Amino acid sequence: MHVRRLELVDVRSYERVAVDFPQGSSVLIGPNGVGKTNLVEALGYIATLTSHRVSVDAPMIRVGAERAVIRCEVVHEGRELLVELEIVAGKANRARLGRSPARRARDIIGALRLVLFAPEDLALVRGEPEQRRRFLDDLLVARQPRLAGVRADYERVLKQRNALLRTAYLARKMGGAKGGDLSTLEVWDYHLAEHGAKLMRARLVLADAIAPHLEESYRLVSAGQGKAMMEYRATTGADELAEALRAARDEEVARGTTLVGPHRDDLLLRLGDLPVKGYASHGESWSFALALRLASYTLLRAEGIEPVLVLDDVFAELDTGRRERLAELVKDAAQVLITCAVEADVPDSLRGARYLVRPGEVERV
To answer: Is residue 340 within 8 Å of 28, Cβ to Cβ?
Structure first.
């Protein structure tokens, strides 16, 4: 799989730009702040319907514009597919596949499989559980696009259930004797347990599948300095989720939020016997974050999926040894897109097609 052409209209800093990419490696070169990351962010958005930089859509739209459009021509096994996504702040995104409207924006998920490593990924090992849950779920969907529906259904039900609990909590706080109408809570419990159990089981299977790839990727990136391990830590078992919801009901009503389910789970990351968070050095944390993305990439490839690999401003954060080891691991990728401020930071084996990025424009040189 590779991206042949990317076109942006009113996306971030670009009024309009189109870039043609070859297979193999491509390097986007330019000083910080000129829009290199905006290009790969758009590709990531096509792949996951989320940005790796922000949690809302509005910043994706160029200041002064009403909507943003991302068009991407993807080539997979000799077949070409045009994927288009229109982003309108405060409204549902609209998508097209092969020039035909998609019923839902999430129907384009799977058209582009992509693994993106960026400086923000340090939050995977140092940040909150939400970051690690998102890592798992994005990889779940890249591996099995149909799970995008399970993920969306769970998030929708969780939002509705939390709204009901919050209303009851506020009613009690204001002095209501019964604390609001909870007659529909059992219905939301049923749906939350149904979708939540599916999501938890899929995460557990994924964690088991990626663990050996993580261990090997960390060994290669760090030159054998430590053993990387992971463990999916759930608030309850998938088969016990419905019962756990019933057991937690009084406390949930008292606190106004859902306290059990996959939205409360975490992915525990360890180096040897110690957790990475709070114990690993800066270099070890970077190596672990990189190993997580490389493990994602190698897992997908092992299962017959050839994802596009994006390395966004990564080499500046790595020492010479890690740069060379990373380059050796990915040099045979079907397509790797690299952004950098200093071309010399990129190992020679990955210096393929070169693009100069200036404010609002991209030129192949």
So the answer is: yes
Residues 237, 266 contacting (CB under 8 angstroms): no
- DSSP secondary structure string, 145-188? TTHHHHHHHHHHHHHHHHHHHHHHHHHHHTT-SS-S--TTHHHH
214 and 192, same domain (yes or no): yes
10 Å CB burial of residue 302 (0-12, 13-18, 19+) is: exposed
Predicted TM-score (pTM) of the model is 0.90
Looking up residue 177, the CATH number of its domain turns out to be 1.20.1050.90
Residue 310 sits in the same domain as residue 300: no
What confidence tens digit (pLDDT) does each residue in 113-157 have? 999 999 889 999 999 999 999 999 999 999 999 999 999 999 999
Do 320 and 269 share a domain, yes or no? no
DSSP single-letter state for residue 345: G
User: In the chain, how many domains are there?
Assistant: 2
Clarify whether residues 8 and 26 are in a common domain: yes
> Which of 305, 336, 357 marks a domain boundary?
305
Count of residues for the chain?
Answer: 365
246 and 344 in a single domain? The answer is no
Angle, helices 36-48/129-143, rounded to nearest 10 degrees: 70
Short-list 81, 97, 84, CA closest to 1? 81
CA distance 249 to 161: 12
Q: Are residues 158 and 280 in the same domain?
A: yes
Residue 86 DSSP label: E
The whole-angstrom separation of Cα 145 and Cα 149 is 8
Residues 289-341: pLDDT tens digits?
999 999 999 999 999 999 999 999 988 888 888 888 889 888 889 999 999 99
Q: Which domain holds residue 106?
A: 1-113+306-365
Confidence band for 180, pLDDT divided at 50, 70 and 90: low
